[in-house]
């Protein structure tokens, strides 16, 4: 009886989380976000543009509604993750990556969709824009030029667990679109990709943006439950 109650409680909790849309970034501040290393935190809110004098970086101006990692290169910043946690979701998000820069969208903090300046690449590889890092490459290169805003739509099923905590179903990227082009469908994840928050799987998790590989900006973050 105790096991049944535990299972029902877990199911109800996940339903409640999945049933309440949450957009963790308000476009004004980073109050709902955690820095991995506060001493290296260069994230701010403003208007982003690729710097003319140094196109591998971003200029930050007041008045915008983008979350910006204003760093000059690899190892100069840190990752940032939402305090809110999610299960089965659709993530809609716009991203700007300057020339040669690198970041990543970690669904549940553990499964990375690569963000990279892959403009002009004819055959995308495992580190290019749109790759599910460590798992599979995108069908095509749908990347825009550096400094342009680009849009991802990610439909994702979280891994499932029984009442004892054993995994019963792998996580899956149902569909990933980049700039209106489908680049992944039904990619099953046997485990987390490298570089995540904990390297462990769970029923829910935050959204994390990689911030220790280069400058990047994110805006218009919309997270909706999948039915």
Question: What is the overall pLDDT average?
Answer: 89
Helix-strand pattern: HEEEEEEEEEEEEEE
Q: Helix count, per DSSP?
A: 1
Looking at the overall shape, the CATH architecture is: Sandwich
Proportion of strand residues: 35-45%
What global shape is seen?
globular
* SS content category: mainly beta
Essential attributes:
227 residues; mainly beta; 7-stranded antiparallel beta sheet; single chain; 39% strand; Jelly Rolls; 5-stranded antiparallel beta sheet; 14 strands
Question: What is the topological layout?
Answer:
Blueprint: H1 2-18, E1 33-35, E2 43-50, E3 58-69, E4 80-82, E5 89-96, E6 102-107, E7 111-116, E8 149-157, E9 160-161, E10 167-169, E11 171-178, E12 181-189, E13 208-209, E14 216-225
Antiparallel strand pairs: 1-4, 2-3, 3-14, 4-13, 5-8, 5-14, 6-7, 6-13, 8-11, 9-10, 11-12
Outline of the structure:
This protein is mainly beta.
Structural notes for this entry:
The strands form three sheets. Strands 2-3-14-5-8-11-12 form a seven-stranded antiparallel beta sheet, with no helix packed on it. Strands 1-4-13-6-7 form a five-stranded antiparallel beta sheet, with no helix packed on it. Mean pLDDT is 89; it is low at 1-18. It has one helix and 14 strands. Helices cover 7% and strands 39% of the residues. The protein has 227 residues and is mainly β. The protein has one helix spanning 2-18, and strands spanning 33-35, 43-50, 58-69, 80-82, 89-96, 102-107, 111-116, 149-157, 160-161, 167-169, 171-178, 181-189, 208-209, 216-225. The protein starts with a helix and ends with a strand. The chain has a single domain, classed as Exo-inulinase, domain 1 (Jelly Rolls, Sandwich), CATH 2.60.120.560. A hairpin with a 7-residue loop joins strand 2 and strand 3.
